[in-house]
Structure formats: C-alpha cells, structure tokens
From TrEMBL:
Keywords: Coiled coil. Residues 16-25 have a biased composition (Low complexity). It comes from the Archaea. It comes from Caldiarchaeum subterraneum. Residues 164-198 form a coiled coil. Residues 1-51 are annotated as: Disordered. Residues 34-45 have a biased composition (Basic and acidic residues). This is Uncharacterized protein.
Length: 264
C-alpha cells in the first residue's frame, strides 16, 4: 500500500503593518483649580454708577440764579417807574403805556431766557432721578444681603464677618446719600414748576405791589367820607374802570385814581 505523503507548508512570516508616526502626547496633568478671590463689598462711589450730575446741576442752578436776579431787577424797574409816576404833577396815560410797553419787551426777553434755563433744570432733574434710583436700589440690595448674612450660620466665619462689617459701614453712607439726593431733587422740581408757571405770572411777579397797596388805603379813607361802608367796593370798581379805559394794569390805575383825588 503506498505511503501517504503529507506536505507541511510553513507560512511565510508576515511583515508587520507600517503605521504612520503618531506623536504621543503625554497625559496632561489635571489643572489646579484657580483660587477665586473673595469679592469685597464695593464702596458707595463704585457701587453706584456715577452720572455727570454735579456739573450739569451746578450750571443749571447758576443759570437759575441769574434769571432770578433779572426778575428782581425788572421788579425794581417797575417800582422806580411807579415812584416816578407818583411824583409827577401831570401823569399822562399815554406815557404810562409807552413805558409799560418797554417793560413788556424785557419780560418777553426774560421768558425766552427762562425756556433755556427750564430745559437745563429738566435735564438735571432727570439725571438726579436716575442717580436716586440707583442709590435706592443699591441700598435695598445691601440691606437684603446684610439681613441674609445675619440669618446664615456661617456668617460668623472670617469671610462672613468681613463682608458683614463692610455692609454695616456702607448702608449708612447710602442712606445719607439718598437723603441728599432726595432734597436736591425736590429743590429742582420746585424750580421746574416755578419756571413752567412763569409765562402765566411773569407780569404779576415783576410788578411792584407795595406802593399801590399804600395808595389804595389812602383812597379808601377818602371814599369812606362819601360812600361809608361801600368805600372799598366803590374804589375797586373805579380802579377797574380806569384800567380798562386806559389799557393799563390795575396797579397803575390806582396811581391815576389817587392822583385825581389828590388834585381835587
């Protein structure tokens, strides 16, 4: 029987697969946690965004003071003219109207200037209101923070005590600043209202009242002799009549009536 021949084929050695060179990056060690600095309580000046209120308000107040001086000067011109009228032997209504026309021109110029001052005051009022709101907000927030820290258990730690002390010092400053802003805001609001009403009462506030009041009392005394208890009513009616006929203010009508009675 023939022998069975078994051929054993030895496999050829496989070449190792070549792979591209890869740069081996060593493992990055875990980054150390950054130490976060504890935020301290900001001072009042930094905590509240500052508005350019100071210069704006100072300029508006300066313009307001100048305007008030001009109003006072105009009142002085009116008073001096009244005294001149009282001293004149013959006072012509036409002369009174002419001089009053010049005073009216000055009043119109004053009103035009007051419009600019009013706009400056309104801008200052808006800036003050904005700063007031910021300080008020900061005060409330700081108070809430302080109240919360006082209730927390860890508020007695070193960090808690430091921040709490800063809040306790900051809150009174905020209250003081808020009170100051409130007073300034109220002052500016009153000025704004005064100038807003100026077109309606410019003639009244720039007209002297003292001299006509004195003359009116003298007129009443003379009318009492002829009209008794009706003296004041009759005198007022006569003054109103002269004012309408001559197209002059009642204050000057008083002067005309007084002079007519003095010449009788």
């Amino acid at each position: 029987m023939p022998k069975k021949i078994v051929l054993r084929i030895k496999p050829s050695p496989q070449k190792p697969e070549t792979s591209p060179d890869v740069e081996v990056v060593p493992p990055t060690p875990p980054q150390e946690e950054q130490t976060v600095k504890e935020e301290s309580v900001k001072p009042v000046e930094e905590a509240v965004t500052q508005q350019p209120v100071g210069d704006e308000l100072d300029e508006a107040l300066k313009m307001y003071d100048e305007l008030m001086r001009e109003i006072e000067r105009l009142r002085g011109l009116d008073r001096n003219f009244m005294l001149y009228c009282i001293k004149m032997e013959e006072l012509r209504p036409q002369l009174v109207r002419n001089i009053l026309s010049r005073l009216a021109e000055k009043r119109n110029a004053l009103l035009e200037k007051s419009g600019e001052v009013l706009e400056r005051l309104k801008a200052a009022k808006e800036a003050l209101g904005s700063e007031f709101a910021q300080v008020e907000e900061e005060l409330i927030w700081s108070s809430i923070e302080l109240n919360t820290m006082q209730l927390e258990k860890d508020s007695d730690s070193g960090r808690g005590v430091g921040i709490r002390e800063e809040l306790e010092a900051k809150i009174p400053e905020l209250r003081k600043k808020l009170a100051s802003l409130r007073n300034r805001l109220k002052m500016v609001e009153e000025m704004v209202k005064q100038l807003s009403d100026l077109p309606r009462n410019i003639a009244d506030i720039t007209t002297n009242k003292e001299e006509p009041a004195k003359l009116f009392e003298e007129i009443k005394k003379k009318y009492i002799l002829s009209h008794g208890q009706r003296a004041e009513a009759v005198a007022r009616a006569e003054i109103e009549k002269i004012a309408q006929q001559e197209s002059i203010p009642r204050e000057y009508a008083v002067i005309l009536l007084w002079k007519s009675l003095a010449n009788r």
